[in-house]
Design a protein that fits this description.
Number of helices: 15
Number of strands: 5
Shape: globular
């Protein structure tokens, strides 16, 4: 495997159903993607070319369309330059979500992991600072411009989260056309891949304390005994509420970026400006092929 053998890269955004994109592509025998997010061009570049390419199996990838997904590429400074330096030939795919909803979803993920505290205002209020991973990463227009300047607009496919929830077959048809792949039906196994933030979770303190057990118990996951034991200690997480005031602050903060994104993508994003009282954040976190349940 060489750099020139890689055909495409999904660059983000996080919390925008890119895992769904990946599992749909991986279900195609004509496509090869390694499972983990490598984050090579954003966080692991110092590991070198051999480390990166070692994640691509030569036998499995032979004769296939080869790609990878790392959501951190979109917003990490310098990632676009490094990616273009080593992989100037690749086609790029990005799937984006309303940055306000995405920011709250990202906060909930980090809260679930015990990496942020319960003072949600400290992390999501842009007037108090721009948390890079949570708030700053949602400035999609400026992040995408770095890739467009290097690759050109034609090499970048811009998708939106609503395509997954409302028209998944059409969404994947656009992806396959961009990559030069023939039409194919949606894969059933890829439909339940998006994580459910409402599911009970083992408290972060216990996860850290017994982290060394993960490789040992991994083969037991899904068994009756394992799930019964997990159910004893797992707890439903109560997330700090996303207030209307905080939502409005983020709406105002992201509006200029959304307007620029409309120009870049050629698509109206007016529905992102307006709060829909019928759209809950939990609903936006779970994918179902025909509709998104509340």
């Amino acid at each position: 495997m060489q750099f020139e053998d890689i055909d495409f890269v999904i660059i983000g955004a996080a919390k925008s159903a890119t895992t769904w994109l990946q599992t749909q592509l991986q279900s195609d025998p004509a496509v090869y993607m390694p499972d983990p997010e490598l984050h090579y061009f954003s966080r692991e570049y110092q590991r070198g070319e051999d480390w990166y390419l070692s994640h691509f199996d030569d036998e499995e990838s032979a004769g296939k369309t080869v790609g990878e997904k790392s959501n951190s590429y979109l917003y990490t400074a310098g990632a676009a330059d490094r990616l273009h330096r080593d992989l100037p030939q690749v086609k790029l795919i990005t799937q984006l979500r309303n940055p306000v909803e995405r920011a709250y979803s990202s906060y909930c993920m980090l809260y679930r992991r015990g990496e942020v505290g319960a003072n949600i205002d400290a992390y999501l209020n842009p007037s108090l600072g721009e948390h890079l991973q949570i708030v700053g990463s949602g400035n999609f227009a400026s992040h995408l411009q770095s890739f467009i300047d290097l690759y050109g607009r034609e090499k970048l496919l811009i998708l939106f989260f609503e395509g997954v929830t409302q028209a998944p077959q059409e969404q994947m048809a656009r992806v396959r056309t961009h990559l030069g792949l023939p039409p194919r039906s949606l894969a059933v196994e890829g439909r339940d891949k998006v994580k459910d933030k409402t599911a009970p979770l083992v408290p972060s303190g216990l996860r850290q304390r017994f982290g060394w057990l993960k490789p040992i118990v991994r083969p037991l996951r899904g068994t009756t005994a394992f799930e019964a034991a997990r159910g004893v200690i797992a707890r439903k997480i109560e997330y700090p509420p996303f207030t209307d005031e905080l939502r409005k602050r983020l709406n105002d903060y992201y509006r200029p970026s959304i307007e620029k994104l409309e120009q870049i993508s050629g698509q109206s994003l007016q529905h992102w400006y307006e709060k829909d009282d019928n759209v809950g954040t939990e609903r936006l976190d779970r994918f179902r092929p025909k509709r998104v349940k509340a």
